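Field: sequence (string)
Field: structure_tokens (string)

Example rows 1 and 2, in order.
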Amino acid sequence: MKPVTNQSSVIAQPASSPMPHHAADSSAQIESSPVDAPTIEPVIHPTAIVASDARIGRRVHIGAYCIIGQHVTLEDDVRLESHVHIDGRTIVGEGTRVFPFVSIGLAPQDLKYDEESSETRIGRRTTIREFVTVHRGTAHGGMLTTVGDNCLLMAQAHVAHDCHVGNNVIMANAATLAGHVTVAEHATIGAYSGVHQFCRVGREAFIGGYSVVVKDALPFAKTVGNHARCYGLNTVGLKRRGFAPESIRALSQAFRLLLAAKLNTTQALERIITSELNDTPEVRELITFIQASQRGVIK
């Protein structure tokens, strides 16, 4: 093992020898700390297998039967409960907790993947529950898969290659992202929902359980069904998140024009842009999201 020296930007270095060693191997390097900080060694269960070139931070806990590859970085206070497999060029952020039978950074389920040296990054203080899978990126999608800070990925959720999941996202049980999906911060994706490849899920969006999302899901909205439809503003969620009443009113009027005014999307956008609703930052964000869509938006 190697100590983590620069946790904000560290990338695991290629190993001189690809052979991993058992955690109890006497050749394991002891974690070092700065002079002005206490030395707190990682706790590694004797049955865990940790590659010699893996970078392990302070106070890391690696439970029974975990497997950690040679290009993996575990930042300070990461906790792997047991039976966790992390491989590839993967960084797991400070304070993240990973439950049993999770797989992070392994090869994607993409026939075009050709063993390229792509990456996976997990943010800080994220919770990843049992049987979750997060796959590394590919050459066709930017070589990187990311999950942000303070996320909750419930049991059996799946994040495919080249996905980008923002901060504070919740993915309920068995929620599934196909490749190249982008999920903005504070979005919630309900249990057993599936998001089609290359789709976007907007900020503060709420995707109901068992939904099939084949176009972009609007920010601030409730989107539910198979195939999914938009059911207007997520008013309760925005109030809980502390959005200003005037912002909620403006968004509500904008959604009425989009969904209930018998206007097509272009006509509704023109009406919103030329009205005082366009003075509200959240409404402008909604407009920008729609204008940037490549697959169309769910209405």
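Row 2 begins here:
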Amino acid sequence: MPFNACELEIDLFCKGTRVLDDVSLDGTREISRACAGLGSGLEIVEPYLRGVKEEVGMLVGVQLAPERDCSRYDRLIGMGVDRLSFCFECFDAEWFARVCPGKERMLGQKFFFDAMEYCAARMRKGAVSGEVIAGIEPLEATHQAIDYIASIGALPTVSIFRPTIGSGMEAWASPRYEEMRDVMQHVYEGWRRAVKLVTRRLFSRRMQPRPLRNSDSPTGPSDSSPVVPSTDA
């Protein structure tokens, strides 16, 4: 059965799949690499960022695999992107390699951390987020991930693992409610540490979209201001 080229690209990147020599690729078409970590993702995103900013003026968030050369993010930040997100799934290095063999083989976990730290240092507080999946690796590692992300001024975001029928992890047990409640409490505390954010002020007037700017414009001190003001006394 011939592969769909897009599905093949996703499998190769996300699952570390290798196409066997006896598998026919007749009928597939060559596609350019669309993963930022492979050096083409940012160029693909730029026209969409520019179009949305010019025509609509909405908030624009981007989630891509990390660039090997972090300075490439300067152009996207200069254009006015509002949020950048990096999903590395597991904080523990061994679990990362086990659950994300493709990311481990093609990029490595360190590139996610480097890109996240680079962008967090150049954008306003809370404009960068790091994402992990709770319920796969040990709970302690998930807590460490939340603490690490918050420590660099980024927002920790957590998805809860769900064993999906037909997936390679469908037989894995669902995480316990009590543990996930504990994780979400830790996320809330992480948000408060990262930007002194109170959830009821999430949609304050400070969360307005950044305007489209010349991509060569430098980012100044104003970009280090919090996304929303603190309501702490």
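free_text_note (row 2): Residues 160 and 188 are 15 Å apart (CA to CA).
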